[in-house]
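Writing this down once: the sequence line spells out the residues, with the fold written below as integer tokens. This is how one looks:
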Amino acid sequence: MTSTKAERIAPWKQEVVSELSELLAQYPVVGVLDISELPAPQFQQIRQKLRGEAEIVVSKNTLLMLALEKATGMDEKFRELTGFLEGQSALIFSRMNPFRLSKFLRDSKISAPAKPGSKSPKDIVIPAGETDFAPGPVVGELQRVGIKARIQAGKVVILEDCHLLKAGDVISKEVSDALAKFGIMPLELGLKLRAAYEAGMVFSGEVLEIDEARVVVQLQEASASALNLALNVNYPTPMTISLMIMKASAAAQNLALNAYLPVPQVMPMLLARAHAEMLGLAATMGAKDSNTLDEGLKKMLGVAPPVEAKPEEKPKEEPKAKAKPAEEKPKVEQKEG
């Protein structure tokens, strides 16, 4: 039965299946690609990017299925890949793991002009400002798709920002022509990995398309939770042993401190505690009677000595002015007769 079926297969088809079988045995990772809606020029560009990293074989689904069925002799899991052969398909062979291969394919996408009837993958805004368009019918064409434009100083000017498309909007021919005028290529064309095989496991494309930033955050949270759990149950691991020793040391130190155990590790803290308690007691006693404190304690507590009252000084009397002596009248001498 099998030989009769093989005889009906054309020689060139047998060669294709044989080539695919050799690649299936040679590469550790095999994937099924979706190549629908990918024009030949863009396909060749992406194929060029993948050179040295992966090998792609495009053929009829029946031949791809035959090769995969033949490879079940190596691993039954290859049969699962046949379930992903629908529409325009191809097989990709690589030594990269499936997750890295999926990311490599996503990063290899190229921009392409909008096609009428296709959906916009993102929001598109035409900014306000001058353009390089020559005055003419282009103004009317822009206005027909909702872009406010007019001629100013011999130039076509966009008067205000225009939210031309939202993600998921169907692109009309008029909008497609307008985008082409602005040189905007909103479409991203590439090869989509439907599924991939590695080491006896088959990964679907949805599983392979992961958000790396989100996964990193999840791994960090899981690591922190695991570390916290291990510490709480005192489970020794290379990651927790140093923290457990620090935790035990701190607990032992706290116990010795509370038990007033005079060991070298806690003696400075015990002395500091005793000193603080002594100052607190002294402050309480000093508040009631400062005479109970000696001069050293008063200085430590910042208690100022009482200010001695100075005796009142009598005001100095101003010296009285001395009376001037009266002027003596000159004596008149009487002459003898």
Summary: The longest strand covers residues 192-198. The chain has a mean pLDDT of 82.
